[in-house]
Design goal:
globular; 330 residues; 9 helices; 8-stranded mixed β-sheet; Rossmann fold; binds NADP nicotinamide-adenine-dinucleotide phosphate; alpha/beta
């Protein structure tokens, strides 16, 4: 085991809490600092997790100035990822940034340029890419057991219509809506298995506050289709299907954080692969591995992968006519 990696968390909301619980399960990771815009919140957060972070900070700037912190996990709403990731990297900190790493291709390109200039690590927290069951499933597909993939059906949906109008998910200023929040996962699956599509079709229903509340996408490949959906308006089991010429795979719900899948050919085989904790442990281990190697990006979820993914979301947004208010006009 290599040396301890000293972490700081920026933005102490819902996901930051889950992440901290998983970080506690990775022996090489030490949570030394948590930073909120409110000191009281930082103290409450520190009291709610198993670690006892040495620094409980009432500003993000104090986290950047902290000499002990090596890598910062950014867990703010989408609109602020770029701003805080760039500040962190300018202070020489490595960054794991929640998905989507930036809200459009220009933002992601700026963030990558900043990582290069400051010689620091940057990775998008696309945790499904490191899910052990999904990795095993990809190996099964690559091994040819279900033949050529011709069809993907994947969704991410839950009914959030009862959430307050103050919620970040409805707020266009925070780049809310389903696409960047949850639609990113089915898009990731299609991109990971089939690459960039030849053509995209998309339609959305909009929330009165101006973000997409339900989104249906069709990715057309030279010889395959992916049927993708994200929604805050309805419940879904969230099983994904991969259809091949010799069989198909059912990814068990919820597919993006799955513990297994079923391969259906002439016979039916269930595969189980247990995730550690909630599943963020695996992306954390990847951060540690890459930092240990001295590289600035993960080969498994690279800067190019993040650029491709956000490029696909830019295309979908252009098709449904969704622009966040703070984006500059072309
Ligand atoms: N990987 C996953 O499974 C997963 C799951 C859910 C969400 N996410 C992602 O995680 C990120 C945060 O989501 P979340 O559900 O944790 O959100 P959240 O509960 O609203 O927390 C976001 C935190 O960001 C900070 N923040 C900074 N500027 C803010 C602003 N202008 N408005 C509101 N909060 C601001 C706040 O922390 P302080 O008050 O402490 O400064 C807030 O608590 C998003 O990128 C989301 O897509 C990922």
């Amino acid at each position: 085991m290599g040396k301890t990696v000293k972490w700081g968390i920026l933005g102490l909301g819902n996901i930051a809490h889950k992440f901290a619980l998983d970080l506690a399960l990775v022996p090489q990771g030490e949570l030394v600092a948590v930073a909120s815009r409110s000191l009281e919140k930082a103290k409450d957060f520190a009291n709610s997790i198993p670690q006892d972070p040495k620094y409980q900070l009432g500003s993000y700037e104090a986290l950047f100035e902290n000499d002990e912190v090596e890598v910062i996990y950014i867990a703010t709403p989408h609109h602020a990822h770029k701003k805080w990731a760039i500040e962190a990297m300018k202070h020489g900190k490595h960054v794991l940034c929640e998905k989507p790493v930036g809200i459009n291709k220009g933002e992601v390109a700026d963030m990558i340029a900043c990582a290069r200039e400051n010689n620091v690590f940057l990775m998008e927290g696309l945790w499904s890419r490191f899910n052990p069951a999904l990795l095993k499933m990809k190996a099964v597909i690559d091994g040819g057991l279900i033949g050529e993939v011709k069809f993907i059906q994947a969704d991410f949906a839950f009914n959030a219509m009862g959430r307050s109008l103050e919620s970040r998910v409805w707020n266009p200023e925070l780049a809310g809506g389903t696409l960047l929040d949850i639609g990113i996962y089915p898009i990731f699956l299609s991109y990971w298995l089939l690459g960039l599509p030849e053509k995209i079709s998309a339609e959305a229903h909009f929330h009165p506050l101006g973000v997409d509340q339900q989104l249906s996408m069709l990715f057309t490949y030279p010889d395959a289709y992916a049927n993708l959906h994200s929604s805050f308006t309805c419940e879904s089991e969230m099983q994904a299907t991969i259809g091949g010429t010799k069989g198909h795979i059912l990814i068990h719900p919820r597919w993006h954080e799955t513990n297994g899948f079923t391969v259906v050919t002439d016979e039916r085989t269930d595969v189980e692969e247990i995730t550690k904790g909630k599943g963020y442990t695996h992306e954390i281990e990847e951060v540690h591995r890459v930092l240990g190697s001295g590289a600035l990006q993960s080969p498994y979820w690279s800067w190019e992968n993040s650029l491709d993914l956000v490029g696909l979301m830019d295309e979908v947004r252009a098709l449904i006519g969704l622009r966040y208010p703070f984006e500059k006009a072309d």
